[in-house]
């Protein structure tokens, strides 16, 4: 659909083929390349439209049209200045992965237009409304993502001036936070600091210096970050607090908390929220340095062995959790300090758990199960939340130790999220140089295919050895000729109707006499034509059958659909399930008889496709289900979760066989070797681990990525090769016979979503969020 940009047009909807509006005659294509497809919003200064860039393979973008509803000439002049300023600021900032790029800025038909990248996802205010208040862990993640962005902005002498939840978007599908709306941004000009400026910003989020004098500093943006954190943490409107209490509420922000926060978190937020900008943090780097300092200060005398022994004498079971937690915290801090200052010596831990036990008269059970320790900790946290007045000092100690892990995870992650592309490539070259020429396999990119407009979400080399099946992250499924790179068939079209999935028919339950039957009827949404751009098929997860004969997709409206892929040239909707929950991972068994799904509700659902209504539920994970895999025996399920664990399940009886523990962060991807004996797992901790999953034994760590692992694939022809892809777009190829990294492929610019070797092992296909497929050949 094309949408007319004439604000006076009464019927702005047009077809994709129209060059001029059928209602008012206005040109529908700006500058011969930008075609609006619908509206995104409207404000006092103009409208924002969703659009496609015809010169960039119909890639999605955003058009901002300047259209102020003002009468006063001075007000119009100021509004015009602000609109122009956004373009100038975006141009000055250049390219950053968490700031929308400026694509064009021009005047057409006496109106100004700004074109920039489209950021798919929800802003944090909408996320807050949907998910309620953010836990402390999520605020740490917010700081980890945004502090490097603010440092980048301030280093370019720009101040945003309007940091608030509405101006932060959680981008799909990588969940990175993107800072938008630089319309009120201001150049950081020290010479002008003593002159009053213009007071522009959002009530409740503006600091004293901006509200009273119109002055701005880097500390002003950090205040906005602090207020945003407070709002997300408590769900209390800072605007209402300001109207009632002015700035006096800032020192009392803890009164709005529903549950306590860790001490380090509280100290950092105190300084972010200080009324006086001179006593606030002066830069994003200063925030990071203070977090490090506060973390280091936790290694103080009261954490000595003697003090812990005294705690142990009061509560032995809680002591085990406390000792384990202190030891783990110390490890995390030391790792962070080594990364930050590799030449600086790090203090050793004061004592190991075994040394603690020798000093204590309390017997230390070295064989205590990890699950028991976690249950002790969780029970203390639950007890405090249920009735804080009855919690003991020891309960609070354990709960605080649990909170402190968030600080350490933040410290470990912040460096990785700040690594520049140049330093990343340098590190890759250094790793490759460690191997001799005879050890390194040469892989060459022989073809790049612009595959999907929404990024490549999944792919499979079909069993015919000639066909490649790919799926977009959101809407389309295609079949390609692997040898030529030519498109063979759109199996699910990008514009196919979400109700009928492009078939033109839907299944309806009808009652005939005393019987109920399913009948195919004409789809009411697409009227039988199978295409409906206004109500398109969208995916939240997908899975190909290993033989390429079937495909399952989950949709955001909590449905799962199963398709048959006939002769790799057409698709047919076989079955669907409603109200299955929010599915983030799917798997189909090799024999095509079992479908498994899991997601944010932490439950795995199993459908036996030969039984009409049978659904089995498996519970046990403590975090979202992120990856699923059914083994070649069609009887074993492997699941990976945000709780850092991998679980092995018996599909016959639904029993949990074992849990694999070792990753330090969420486990995001799984792959099984051709013989079925080795399992590869990838995690946000940048580690690939190999397991003998049948024996529950950890075999090997593969280290070499600088970002979280997002995709894995074993070679299928007997060669001991494993390919791993990461969030920064790198693909590593490992020779498992030598346990070595033998090649690094860095042509992709964004996250790797899928990898697949050809059946002969001589071709590797990678699919990325950058919308491309790359075909690699070994020589």
Your description of this structure?
This protein has 779 residues and is of the alpha+beta class. Helix content is 26%, strand content 31%. It contains 14 helices and 43 strands. It has a six-stranded antiparallel sheet, covered by helices on one side. It has a four-stranded antiparallel sheet with strand order 14-43-42-41, with no helix packed on it. A hairpin with a 3-residue loop joins strand 26 and strand 27. Helix 10 crosses helix 12 and helix 10 runs parallel beside helix 13. The longest helix has 25 residues, at 316-340. The two termini are 46 Å apart. 41% of the residues are buried. Residues 187-199, 299-402 and 415-440 have low confidence and may be disordered.
Which tags fit this structure?
six-stranded antiparallel β-sheet, alpha+beta, four-stranded antiparallel β-sheet, 779 residues, 26% helix, globular, 43 strands, single chain
Question: TL;DR of this structure?
Answer:
Helix content is 26%, strand content 31%.
Radius of gyration: 28 Å
Label the overall shape: globular
Largest sheet: 6 strands, antiparallel
Determine the N-to-C terminus distance: 46 Å
Strand order of the largest sheet: 3-4-5-6-8-7
Beta-strand content: 25-35%
């Amino acid at each position: 659909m094309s949408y007319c940009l004439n604000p006076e047009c009464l019927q702005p909807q047009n077809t994709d083929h129209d060059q001029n509006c059928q209602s008012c005659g206005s040109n529908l294509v700006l500058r011969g390349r930008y075609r609006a497809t619908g509206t995104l919003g409207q404000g006092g200064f103009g409208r924002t439209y969703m659009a496609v860039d015809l010169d960039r393979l119909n890639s999605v973008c955003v058009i901002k049209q300047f259209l102020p509803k003002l009468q006063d000439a001075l007000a119009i002049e100021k509004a015009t200045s602000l609109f122009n300023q956004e373009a100038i600021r975006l141009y000055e900032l250049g390219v950053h992965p968490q700031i929308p790029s400026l694509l064009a800025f021009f005047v057409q038909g006496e109106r100004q237009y700004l074109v920039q990248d489209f950021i798919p996802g929800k802003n944090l205010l909408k996320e807050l409304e949907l998910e309620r208040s953010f836990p402390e862990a999520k605020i740490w993640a917010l700081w980890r993502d945004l502090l490097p962005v603010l440092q980048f902005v301030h280093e370019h002498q720009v101040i945003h001036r309007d940091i608030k939840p509405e101006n932060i978007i959680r981008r799909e599908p990588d969940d990175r936070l993107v800072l938008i709306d630089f319309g009120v941004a201001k150049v950081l000009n020290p010479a002008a600091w003593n002159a009053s400026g213009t007071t522009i910003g959002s009530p409740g989020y503006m600091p004293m210096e901006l509200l009273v004098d119109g002055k701005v500093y880097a500390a002003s943006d950090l205040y906005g970050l602090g207020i945003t954190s407070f709002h997300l943490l408590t769900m209390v409107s800072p605007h209402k607090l300001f109207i009632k209490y002015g700035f006096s509420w800032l020192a009392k922000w803890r009164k709005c908390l529903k549950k306590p926060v860790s001490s380090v978190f509280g100290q950092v937020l105190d300084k972010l929220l200080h009324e006086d900008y001179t006593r606030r943090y002066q830069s994003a780097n200063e925030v990071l340095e203070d977090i490090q300092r506060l973390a280091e200060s936790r290694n103080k005398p009261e954490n000595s062995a003697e003090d812990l022994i005294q705690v142990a004498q009061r509560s032995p079971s809680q002591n085990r959790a406390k000792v384990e937690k202190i030891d783990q915290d110390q490890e995390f801090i030391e790792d962070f300090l080594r990364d930050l200052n590799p030449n600086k010596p790090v203090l050793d831990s004061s004592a190991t758990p075994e040394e603690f036990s020798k000093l204590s008269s309390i017997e230390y059970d070295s064989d205590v199960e990890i699950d028991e320790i976690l249950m002790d900790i969780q029970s203390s946290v639950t007890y405090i939340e249920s009735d804080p007045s009855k919690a003991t000092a020891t309960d609070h100690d354990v709960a605080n130790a649990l909170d402190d892990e968030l600080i350490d995870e933040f410290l470990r992650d912040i460096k990785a999220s700040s690594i520049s592309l140049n330093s990343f490539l340098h590190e890759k070259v250094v790793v490759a140089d460690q191997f001799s020429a005879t050890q390194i396999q040469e892989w060459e990119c022989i073809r790049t295919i612009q595959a999907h407009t929404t990024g490549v979400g999944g792919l499979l080399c079909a069993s015919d050895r000639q066909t490649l099946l790919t799926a977009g992250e959101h809407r389309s499924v295609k079949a390609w000729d692997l040898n030529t790179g030519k498109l063979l068939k759109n199996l699910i079209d990008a514009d196919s109707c979400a109700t009928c999935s492009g078939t033109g028919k839907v299944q309806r339950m009808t009652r005939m006499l005393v019987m109920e039957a399913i009948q195919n009827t004409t789809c009411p949404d697409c009227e039988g034509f199978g295409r409906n751009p206004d109500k398109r098929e969208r995916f939240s997860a997908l899975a190909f059958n290993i033989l390429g004969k079937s495909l399952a997709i989950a949709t955001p409206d909590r449905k799962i659909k199963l398709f048959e892929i006939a002769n790799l040239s057409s698709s047919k909707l076989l079955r669907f399930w409603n109200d299955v929950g929010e599915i983030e991972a799917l798997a189909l068994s090799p024999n095509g008889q079992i479908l498994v799904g899991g997601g944010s509700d932490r439950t795995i659902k199993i459908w036996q496709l030969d039984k009409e209504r049978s659904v089995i539920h498996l519970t046990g994970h403590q975090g979202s289900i992120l990856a699923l895999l059914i083994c070649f025996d069609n009887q074993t399920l492997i699941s990976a979760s945000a709780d850092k664990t991998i679980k092995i399940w018996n599909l016959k009886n639904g029993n949990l066989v074992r849990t694999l523990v070792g990753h330090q962060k969420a486990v995001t991807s799984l792959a099984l070797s051709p013989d079925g004996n080795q399992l590869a797992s990838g995690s946000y901790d940048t580690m690939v681990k190999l397991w003998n999953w049948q024996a529950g034994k950890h075999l090997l760590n593969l280290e070499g990525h600088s970002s979280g692992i997002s995709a894995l694939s074993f070679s299928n022809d007997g060669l001991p090769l494993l390919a791993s892809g990461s969030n920064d777009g790198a693909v590593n190829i490992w020779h498992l016979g030598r346990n070595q990294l033998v090649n690094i492929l860095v042509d992709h610019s964004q996250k790797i979503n899928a990898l697949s070797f050809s059946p002969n092992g001589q071709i590797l296909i990678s699919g990325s969020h950058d919308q491309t497929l790359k075909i690699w050949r070994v020589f």
